[in-house]
Amino acid sequence: MAQAQGLGKRYIKAFFKGFFVAVPVTVTFLDRVACVARVEGASMQPSLNPGGRQASDVVLLNQWSIRNYDVQRGDIVSLV
Question: CA 30 to CA 62: how far, in whole Å?
Answer without folding.
Answer: 10
